[in-house]
Amino acid sequence: MTGPGRDRPADPAGRVLLITGTSSGIGLATAVAAARAGYTTVATMRDPARAGALRSAAGAAGVALDVRRLDVTDPGSVADCLDAVRRTYGRLDAVVNNAGVSNSDPTLEMSTDAALRANLDVNFFGVVTVSRAAMPLLRAAGGRLVTIGSVHGVIGQPFNEAYCAAKFAVEGFMEAFAPVAAAHGVRVSVVVPGFVPDTAFGVFPDIDRTTIEAASGPYAPTFAGYLDWVGGQGWESAGQPAREVAEVVVRTLREPRPPFRVPAGAWAADYLAVKLADPDGSTVQTLARTWLGQPPPTP
């Protein structure tokens, strides 16, 4: 089901965009880039007291942002924020699911169920909660739903099991949901960055190497080898600034027919191609449309 004009490039003028996790990194850069492109940008975060860097970046860029509280792990917070956006603007044209956390435990045997659930709660269930709450408004607008994925959602990364599990779940969920949403006028995409050094993410945030190696038990020698690789040449060629990912997100929002999977750069595309014969997801999406009785997209 596609309405008139829904395959035309999105004109940002008058369009309302909500982004989660904007206190730093990709979320911050995307909020500023989207506002510069002309979107009315609702920049959300769990604790608005941490909005200093975002406000400074917006001021330097000469743009205005609507900063609001939204905790993706709290359905009440999500519902309140979406309702407030509806009452303020009367519409919502696009959502960017960006909020996320990294790993905090070294590996399966040394981890806990609580740590795994906490990671999935933010990185997967948070995405689902925000997307579900936003869909009525996005359907009404013929809008866009974009989620920040990860190369770790396609190829598993040692010692990042919880994060990979969540990102794999996001990939599978959105891949399954995308053709359904498209049949109702909403385009769904997952933007896949490589390694973004200027974010709040770390391999194991707030824990020094000595401490976490000591907590790794029999896996300590293996973990040490992994950290040597990461600290050496492991991600050197993969690095890209958050602003570069933000530009890809804004471009995806404006594409008339964005692909499902959007690598955020050449490195990410090459990395994904190691595993995927369908790097942008077009073949799978076309096949899934036939499962729904929908015609394949016009070339």
Task: Write a concise keyword list for the protein shown above.
299 residues; alpha/beta; disordered N terminus; 47% helix; seven-stranded parallel sheet; 11% strand; 7 strands
What does this structure look like?
There is one protein chain. The two termini are 17 Å apart. The protein has 299 residues and is an alpha/beta fold. Helix content is 47%, strand content 11%. Residues 1-5 and 202-206 have low confidence and may be disordered. It has 10 helices and 7 strands. α1 (25-37) links the parallel β1 and β2. The chain is globular. A 7-stranded parallel β-sheet has the order 3-2-1-4-5-6-7, sandwiched between helices. It has helices spanning 25-37, 52-61, 75-89, 113-141, 161-182, 209-214, 220-234, 242-254, 266-273, 282-291, and strands at 16-19, 40-45, 66-69, 94-97, 144-148, 187-192, 261-263. α3 runs parallel beside α4 (113-141) and α4 runs parallel beside α5.
In round numbers, the mean pLDDT is 87
The number of E-state strands comes to 7
Helix content: 40-55%
Strand order of the largest sheet: 3-2-1-4-5-6-7
Which spans have pLDDT < 50 for at least 5 consecutive residues?
Answer: 1-5, 202-206
Order of helices and strands: EHEHEHEHEHEHHHEHH
Percent of sequence in beta strands: 5-15%
Distance between the termini: 17 Å
Structural class: alpha/beta
- Please outline the major beta sheet: 7 strands, parallel
Counting DSSP H or I runs of 4 or more residues, the number of helices is 10
Gyration radius, in Å? 19 Å
The coarse silhouette is: globular
